[in-house]
Amino acid sequence: MLRSCAARLRTLGAVPGPARRPFSSEKAIQKDYSLPNPSWTKDIRLLYDQFMKKCEDGSWKRLPSYKYTKFVEEQTPKAQIFTRSLEEGLGFEYVMFHNDAEKRVVCVFQGGPHLQGNHGPIPLCSVVVINSQIDKIEGRKYFISCDIRSVDEKTLYSEATSLFIKLDPNKA
Q1: Given this model, what pLDDT does residue 92 score?
Q2: Global pTM?
């Protein structure tokens, strides 16, 4: 038990120790967590199937989801992205779809029982649809809107707008 805790702390950089080394020269195959699994409810599976049908003509694209990304490994090799840090279904599940022509991303999200917090708008273990889109681009300014709705789209849980400014790579 103590060794496994020390190993985890070492992995996070909290305890000095030898660097992790792969046992094989083969590249590790990453698991795509945005694929159906036994913890998905009927609602998330139905929406997944609907969007996968839209992907057939190439207008929509499913975005894969990994625990680690190349960017994170290069920039902070000891970090883990907070995607699905708990067993399947206990934290949360999601799948995202992107439509380049519409400048839109849809995320189908299923919150698990370990996300329970204060009483609020999204029922525990329910599925919601998160719609986000780029409304307007003015030079380096990106105006983005987002809303979170129930699967039947009758309940609006939250909505937001934001302004993002793309950094100029020529300036330090």
Answers
A1: 84
A2: 0.71
